[in-house]
What does this fold into?
Amino acid sequence: MAGGMSRCERSPDVRSHVRGSAGARHAGGMPEAAAGCAASVGRTCSWRATPLLLLVAGCAASEARQAPEVRLPAPAPVRYNPVGLESVIGRTARFLEAEFGRPGLDIREGPARKLQYNSPACVLDLYLYPPHGGGEAIVTWVDARRLDGTDFDRASCVAALQSKAR
It folds into this structure.
């Protein structure tokens, strides 16, 4: 740099500088004029250098390596204590109707089904899905709540419905 000026400040047109150096390239593959402008942080470059710098920056950005895709493991299925639920888990809708009678609510959504039974103490929701190998839907999840919507022990609700059915 002669006289403390960057190449951009000395050259009124970057293209003429590049032509004047017969298209000489900087060691990093950038035209010397652009390298000089890039090295002159805090100095004013010719407005004509801007398109060239944008082009060079775009090329450099496209060559940047992308971070590898991060795959998180699938969350573990939620498990709960099935003690007291043996009479409903894995059972079909036909079995449940024979055990508890007709459900108060029977909702189907695609292959899934929800049966709802009511007792004076609680509401029991039984969710049925077909097994992985296919076949008739079976109970895979059970929810229970009081009539006011607060949580209720699932096994106790099943027991209350069994005593109501008898």
